Amino acid sequence: MTSLPARAGRRCHNALNPLHSTVYFSPDFAKELAGVGIEDSSAAYFAGRGAAMGAVGAGVITATFYNFNHDLVARHVPEVWRTASPETVLAARLRAADSTLRRLLGAEAVGSDEMAEAAGLALRAAEACTRHARPLYAAHADLPVPDQPHLAYWHAATLLREHRGDGHLTALLAAGLDPLEALVSHTATGKGMSPRWAVTTRGWTRTDWEAAAGRLRERGLLDGEGELTEAGTALRADLEDATDRLDAAPYTHLGAEGTERLTELGRGFLAAALGAGAFPADLTGK
């Protein structure tokens, strides 16, 4: 097997992960979760992403999601499981994924040979994912693979996303970044969630945000204007490199040619979704 080009796995992740994430921003998701009694957007997200782990408590959600304020999580979990069981939530989430992908991509793309090919490649990559120390991945790996190719592709993208995400948390801990410091420093790259979205959806306040920025400045990672210093830029680059190393197995297993093809297919589907307005315009940036 030929070695992968540098950052090939990261490029593939960057093509697959956003399409997975469209579901959580979709009106279809809100509608499906409201249909089972979960109307609050935060409760819906905690339940929708966490249901694969079962009816877990607030501590497990906070630990595995990492950058949410625990007080926000505890406001909804475990109460949300009294409204709808994890099994009910998972079924609603899959219905939302179905309708979201059909709406964003169109019937032709959903039923295409390319979609079936992408699903096969992504599932093959996921064969090499590992469960140890990866709770969100491991929980999703226990779920059945949907029969329809577009849902199998979304499921595989979920596996690959959570596998990389679990490894990324290991890298964040090693770098000494707490949940909000991770958000602030990522936003400072210009690629992360905007401060407004981070504060309103993650349960933090502007005071919390400024305190985290102050801690980063004390470490020499952020300057007075809120921009990354040379050391901060290097730290964020090291974080991504460490995450790449922890996430190499799926793409090494798929091989260079398969990874390149999956990236190509994923980018095509993602471009269509973005063109259909899958995300809020102000979601990312400084």
UniProtKB/TrEMBL annotation:
InterPro entries: HTH_67 (IPR054058). NCBIfam families: SCO6745_fam_HTH. It comes from the Bacteria. Pfam families: HTH_67 (PF21863). This is SalK.
